[in-house]
Design a protein that fits this description.
Blueprint (H helix, E strand, L loop, with lengths): L3 H17 L2 E12 L6 E7 L2 E6 L6 E5 L6 E6 L6 E7 L2 E6 L4 E5 L6 E6 L7 E3 L4 E4 L4 E5 L5 E6 L1 E2 L2 E2 L3 E7 L2 E6 L4 E5 L6 E6 L16 E6 L5 E5 L4 E9 L2
Parallel strand pairs: 1-19
Antiparallel strand pairs: 1-22, 2-3, 3-4, 4-5, 6-7, 7-8, 8-9, 10-11, 11-12, 12-13, 14-15, 16-17, 17-18, 18-19, 20-21, 21-22
C-alpha cells in the first residue's frame, strides 16, 4: 500500500485535473430586447422562428408566443389558477408544458396554443428540452430525465460538477449535443454532457441585468433560448430585458 502522503498527493492531483477540465465562460451582451416584467419566466425557446415562453405563479401562469422586438405576447393562453406553469418544449409538432407540483403536464398545438391533452407527471416539473428524439427534463434535483413522447422515463443521468452532484437544475436548452441548464438561485449556467452527466463548462452571468434595471419584483436568472441562426438569448423571472449574448472564455 502506498504511504498516506502519496495517496493524498495523487488524490489532489486527480481532483485538480478534474477541475481543470471544466471550462469557464462569461457573457458579452450583443443586443438587448424588451421583456415583460410580469412574466415569471419558466420555459423559453425558439421553434421555426417563433419565440415561445411559459410563465409561472399561481393565477398568473401562461403559455405565449412573443414578439422579440417588443417583448409583447402575440398569442397568450393562461393556465387555470390552480396550476403553476413550468418548462416547455416542442417535439414532433406537440407543445409540452410542465406544471410544478400538480403532477400533470399538458399538450398543446404550437400553431394556436389549443389544448390537446393532459399527461400524468409523477415528479415536480422544472425545466424541459429535447434533442429532437426524446424529451429531457429536470425536477430541481441533480437528475436529468430522458423520456419518450408519452413522458415515460427511458433513463436517468446524475449531473455532477467536479465530481459532486449539482442540484437545482432548472430551465433547459439543447445546444450542439449538450444540455444547457440554469442553476436555480444562481447567476450560473452549466453545459452538461448528456451521456455522462458531467458539467463540461460553466457560464457566469453575474451582472447581466444591471442593478439600475432591477426593481422590487425582479427575480433570478432563468431562460435560455437559441434561434435557428445560432444566436443565444438569456433572460430572468420578471426581468425587463431579454439579452442576446455571446460566450467569452475566461482567462
Amino acid at each position: 500500500m502506498k504511504p498516506f502522503a502519496q495517496l493524498l498527493a495523487i488524490g489532489l492531483l486527480l481532483c485538480s485535473c478534474s477541475q481543470a477540465q471544466v471550462k469557464e465562460y462569461g457573457v458579452r451582451v450583443v443586443k438587448e430586447f424588451p421583456h415583460d416584467t410580469g412574466a415569471y419566466t419558466q420555459g423559453l425557446f425558439f421553434h421555426e422562428g417563433v419565440l415561445y415562453e411559459t410563465t409561472g405563479q399561481y393565477g398568473d401562469s401562461s403559455i405565449r408566443t412573443v414578439d422579440l422586438e417588443t417583448g409583447e405576447p402575440v398569442l397568450l393562453k393562461k393556465l387555470n389558477n390552480k396550476y403553476f406553469g413550468e418548462g416547455s418544449v416542442i417535439l414532433d409538432g406537440v407543445l409540452y408544458v410542465l406544471t410544478w407540483t400538480n403532477k400533470v403536464a399538458f399538450r398543446y398545438k404550437p400553431e394556436n396554443l389549443a389544448y390537446q391533452s393532459t399527461v400524468s407527471y409523477p415528479r415536480e416539473g422544472w425545466g424541459i428540452t429535447t434533442d429532437g428524439k426524446q424529451l429531457i427534463a429536470s425536477d430541481g434535483s441533480a437528475t436529468l430525465y430522458f423520456m419518450d413522447k408519452e413522458m415515460k422515463v427511458l433513463r436517468r443521468v446524475k449531473v455532477t460538477l467536479n465530481g459532486r452532484p449539482l442540484r437545482n437544475l432548472n430551465e433547459l436548452e439543447w445546444i450542439d449535443g449538450r444540455v444547457w441548464a440554469n442553476v436555480y438561485l444562481t447567476d450560473m449556467l452549466v453545459i452538461i454532457d448528456p451521456e455522462s452527466g458531467k458539467v463540461e463548462a460553466t457560464v457566469d452571468c453575474k451582472g447581466l441585468l444591471p442593478e439600475k434595471l432591477r426593481s422590487y419584483g425582479t427575480d433570478v436568472l432563468n431562460g435560455i433560448a437559441r434561434d435557428a441562426g445560432g444566436r443565444l438569448y438569456l433572460t430572468g423571472k420578471n426581468w425587463p430585458r431579454l439579452y442576446q449574448v455571446e460566450l467569452v472564455k475566461k482567462k
